[in-house]
């Protein structure tokens, strides 16, 4: 079978290659959602010295939707380097759920990583930073569906999109940048170890503040919390780190929000399962300017 692998000598560090078909409970993949982390492995985002040794030759992608051997439509999430951009994937019950009936295979494949992350935001007056991106546009919708008043920060060119999701838009590049607080919870999908990023933490004092990225020490604390349940973070601050091996309940919650409350990923681009398609996806992911999600169409759902 064919699957996408990291090859750091290839353009963008990715190519399609022959791989052994997995054994066990197998899903034929119809679509695979892409996430910034897929492309970050090429540059060694968290452990830069080891990118080549760790990623090279391994599978690309976390998110997928597809059809099981018994004909059930499912969507789910794999662990690092298992490679969802692949004709077939092996699944465990803790990583998969029935596909939402209201979503296409392409839309369902866009949901797992970003949707599971968006579930971390709980509050009545919430702020989403990076509201036009993969995590942010789902976090706005999940919070609105849970009854919250939502403010979403994005660039001015994406303000209308953020408004269409149900949030009050605030443009960080506008002349009159102003936040109408207070907020009780903030999801910051922009903050990272990249020094070019604005640090909003001082602006939103007093709120529970969850980031999706940070410095090495934050990832270390997030890892300790994931493994032991013990939080080393200061009160009301946390780096949320998704757990792909215990995702089934969250996936079911997302499917329910899609089928009963209209949660819908915005897929801005569907790319082919080719070297060119993958490289275009990686280039787009690294630009950090994706509106909603990009998805690789791996196979035809009818075949
Ligand atoms: N910890 C975890 O488990 C976890 C899970 C999922 C994602 N993540 C991480 O969370 C981050 C966001 O993921 P994503 O899928 O939402 O990414 P994305 O789709 O690339 O969206 C990021 C958004 O951030 C905005 N942005 C980019 N640079 C900015 C800047 N300098 N200032 C303000 N806004 C900026 C962009 O919006 P505008 O173009 O409108 O500015 C873009 O839409 C990534 O780093 C990802 O790896 C972590």
UniProtKB/TrEMBL annotation:
Q: What is this protein called?
A: Enoyl reductase (ER) domain-containing protein
Q: Which residues form the Enoyl reductase (ER) domain?
A: 3-296
Q: Which GO terms describe its molecular function?
A: oxidoreductase activity
Q: Which organism is it from?
A: Chrysophaeum taylorii
InterPro entries the UniProt entry points to: ER, GroES-like_sf, NAD(P)-bd_dom_sf, YIM1/Zinc_Alcohol_DH_Fams
